[in-house]
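assembly run, all chains below
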Amino acid sequence: MTAVDRGAAGPSRGFHGGLRQSMAWLHTWVGLLLAAVLYFVFVTGSFGYFHAEIDRWMRPEMPPAPAQLPAPEVMAMQALAYLEQHAPDAVSWGVDLAAGRHTQFTRLYVSPGPSGAMPPVDLLDPRDGTPFAGVRATGGGRALYEMHYALRYIDYDAATYLVGAATLFMLVALVTGVIVHKKIFTDYFTFRPGRGPRNWQDGHNVVSVMALPFLFVITLSGVVFFTFKYSPVVSWATYFAGPAAAARVAEDFVPFHPAPAGQRVPMSEVSGPLREAAAAWGAGQVGSLTVSNPGDARAQLRIDRHQGLLFSRRSETWLYDATTGQRHAVVWPFLSTSDAVVARAGEEPSVDIWFADLLMTLHEGHFASPLVRWLYFGSGLLGAAMVATGSVLWANKRRQRAARHGAGRCLVLVERLNVGVIAGLPLAVASYFAANRLLPVDLPGRADGEIHTLFLVWATALLHALFSPPARAWREQFAAVAASCAALPVINGLTTEKHLGRSLLAGDWVLAGFDLTALAMAVAFAAAARQAGRP
Amino acid sequence: MASRVLAASLGGFAASSALALGAAALFSHIGWLPRPQAVHVATLAGYLVWAGLALWCFHSAGPERRVWAWLIGLALLGVLPAMGLHW
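ok done. output:
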């Protein structure tokens, strides 16, 4: 008896019969409608947990991260001198300071000014401020990570709303999934191999329950990143509507992005504020600095904390007058609008900010040790597997009914889209990595070219699935993923000097780990192709 | 079916947002929470209330008009104190 059947046996008082039957109906449809978006979010987001390591593999010209780092003020002074030389009239300069795994080198960001001047290089050696020239342009792991909430080729706001809708669907699907499975732990330990469609139901139960705590936390915390965007009424009515709104903003918030005065004034030394922040927060806790209106009488220095600890108070920000070096506020930015970030002032976070910070830190997992990072990665893939098995289960159940009544076009379309989405995306990601090695190093727009490759391959996989019988398409696409993953270490060995043998001998576990993971994936997908080929 | 989907999505969003607005206005007015904190907490809680209302809309066996009556009632419960305290 399935979960749905059990629900039908209950008292008839829900929208679709008993409580569990109503919830099973809802679970099915909220799970299916945005399944492709959720699957994409889980797969790309899972790679995000290793974005620093993937960045390293995708920039083979870069040296390993330095073991010893200078003081934050030394790295900052080098970066600001470089920015002053190459982008003197910028609207703002941003510097991520090297601080271990998450940020291995000094990274620069510039909002260009009237001249449009930009520094030629955005990565500096934190030891002496030397720019890294001749490094291939790449989206790296960061592009995969960013796609899990901003998608690609569509407007940022539209993308985040779509992902937000998918997140709400996910939340509802999780709650209804627990309600549907009255005997959830019995179901969890029930796997009936060789029972055809039952395998998919059992597989769906196993992967869902195994990752359930992770999935709840990751879904709830995903909402917290865009709290005011997804639920804007309270903040809008309080701070942006009605005659009293402006007075409330002035009363509750501090100015965050000052308008430039238009008068040139030399900046004060930033070393004093950085030393002050480092002394207060501890070693390695100064994460980044931003200079708004550099060289202007209203220049402002903003220092943000590093996000590498579980209880990191990640949103704590110190603001300084960059012309005098005087601190004028400790703020907690929490409400973003289209053109400003507003923040609450105070030396300590309020409970709500502390809670939101904790959830966001849990979501991003920057604090995680390598073992915990692998658990995050595996749990993310289990989330993807949950969405995938659920979609296949939907199609299989309808295929059983169709054996009696005939298959409709919708079922045929879903069956084929399942193949293109579920097997096509890993193929596309493997192609993204291969493009990093195969595209010419000096190709203009190279980083975008890698991402175009990913989506072109995915589109090709979808077309292949649409025009092939599903059983054959599963087998062929899984085999293609296995071959692509197995090819990655080979292509790496042929196009760089950092092949697997050398990285293993050198004990370079970041590069070796990438190649070994690709080989493990190749074995897993080869097994899937073999399984899909069985009658 | 379309009415249930509409009730769960738009009706649930409107009712949960109105309740959150009312709660934020009330809590900050009587001094339980500073206004920015009340806005933040109510917004976070409102999202969960929305998910809960959406589940209830699909679970409720009552006729559509009863579902809508509850949602409108909840929205008024939130909006009326907010109107009195906010504007």
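The longest helix of chain A spans residues 370-405.

Chain A is about 60% helix and 10% strand.

not gonna interpret more than that til we talk
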